[in-house]
Amino acid sequence: MTDTEKKPRRPRCPICGRAPAPEQRPFCSDRCRQVDLGRWMTEAYAIPAAVTPEETED
């Protein structure tokens, strides 16, 4: 098989890696969906940003 003939990748649940359930997509279950929501709510996920001196002056 050449590079141009690669099989398409199947999506996986971002929490546990199992195949996603159609009604819970992109997650495999309600549990994984809730785990992801909890991570967002507790700020476990963050987008790194550089803080400038202007932003720290209030």
Mean pLDDT: 86
The low-confidence runs, each spanning 5 or more residues with pLDDT under 50, are: none
The fraction of residues in strands falls at under 5%
Helix share bin: 25-40%
Instruction: Give the CA-CA distance, first to last residue.
Output: 60 Å
Instruction: Provide the structure class.
Output: mainly alpha
DSSP helix count? 2
For the sheet with most strands, the description reads:
none
How much is the radius of gyration in Å?
18 Å
Number of strands: 0
Q: Give the CA-based shape.
A: flat
Describe the overall structure.
The chain is an all-alpha fold and 58 residues long. It contains two helices and no strands. The radius of gyration is 18 Å and the shape is flat.
Summarize the structure.
The chain is mainly alpha-helical and 58 residues long. 28% of the residues lie in helices and 0% in strands. The radius of gyration is 18 Å and the shape is flat.
Keywords:
single chain, 58 residues, mainly alpha, 2 helices
